[in-house]
Amino acid sequence: MQNKSNKIIIILIAILIILTAIVIIISYNKNSVIQNPNSSEINEIIKDENIILIDVRTETEYNSGHIKNAINIPLNDIKNKIDYQKDKPLAVYCRTGKRSLEAAKILAKMGYTKIYDLGGIENSKIELTKE
Hints:
- By secondary structure, the chain is an alpha/beta fold.
- It folds into two domains: 1-31; 34-129, Oxidized Rhodanese, domain 1 (3-Layer(aba) Sandwich), CATH 3.40.250.
- Helices cover 46% and strands 18% of the residues.
- Strands 1-6-5-2-4 form a five-stranded parallel β-sheet, with helices on both faces. Strands 3-7 form a two-stranded antiparallel sheet.
- The longest helix has 30 residues, at 2-31.
- The radius of gyration is 21 Å and the shape is elongated.
- The mean pLDDT is 88.
């Protein structure tokens, strides 16, 4: 009987540990300064004039087509060319999502608190312009 009680206590402790870990992970993601919006949120972000939209691809890639109103700051230049208020919302994107994630991490380390990683535009349905 005591052996059965010990097993139940061990199972309850394991469940408590798992639930605690889940709560920590969820709260960490909510407090992250880097947000990964879904496709409908991306469309809203692109339209929001209060958000600085940054294309972190090369100048050649940018000139081949970019999201309207986006500015081009290649990933290699991001540390030296970004100078906004730290609470200004910034949205970064690239071709596949790799550089935008790296840019978002750099911006977070620089102290920016509202960062949207839009990912890659390679296979998206987002309209691009050459203007």
